[in-house]
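Quick illustration, no need to memorize.
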Amino acid sequence: MEKNKFKAYVVNEVDNKYIGKITERDIEDLPKGDLLIKVYYSSLNYKDALSAAGNKGVTKNYPHTPGIDAVGIVVKSENALFNADDKVIVTSYDLGMNTDGGFGEYIKVPCEWAVKLPENLSMKEAMIFGTAGLTAGISVLRLSELIKPKDGNIIVSGGTGGVGSISIAILNKLGYSVTAITGKESERNYLLNLGAKEIIIRKEFENLDNKPLLKPVYAGAIDTVGGVILENIIKSTKPNGVVTCCGNIASPKLELSVFPFILRGITLVGIDSQNLPMNYRINLWNKLALDWKPDNLINTYSEISLEDLNEKILLMLQGESKGRTIINMEG
């Protein structure tokens, strides 16, 4: 391969269809940025799948290289905060949305988007976490501020998804008892191995009585899907419980009375990892590298190459993916 040339998964708009394929690109065509980074691993997130499918709410202009996560080594730095050969993590902000992302062998980004890789975290582990792990980490952090393991059971929706899987594993590591909601009945063993103590099938949970309040069962919750699932979680949470929410794949709408909030004092916490301040990011990455790193992290991912992306993106859009999918850029 010629100097400055590199491989990237590029999505093009052709006759109102969006087609992704591996393309040779030139480093000189990357956007402006303080850091030129050689990417070793990326990961596949739902937002990446939407970008690859032509969702203009995620990516406005094509051709485009998705990938909201990347980890690699600094090749060139124009900022004193980083040096060549530093290992760095880049997640969220505009990476992979309207800025060429981690599905290429090189990225160029502002230094404000990068975090130095903690010593106790490998590049592969960083991408097993990725944005999903960072989101799970924020969710656990906010929940744990008020709810302790002794307070009772925590329910996690979207249990086989990226955020759900890692949330279960972290909560289990911290001593919480976890109930997982899933639409995949065949994945019970996967969820039990992550640390869930109980499994509830999604349809059963969606079909609970349509009352303003339900029997208080859970001390807290991490919701990743929204819609009726989130409604029933809130209505099933014990007094002074905490519910975090970070997704709306089921629905962005909530049809609730105020009763759970004013009669039980439930706290609903929205989770946004995209614009998380850097000091919080560094703190969370250090927690994920040390005390919060699940013993079974290796069970939460599958590894692919760029050549496998189209198949995995389709599975994700169909709701058939499980855990985390990382892309080995040298694979």
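The mean pLDDT is 95.
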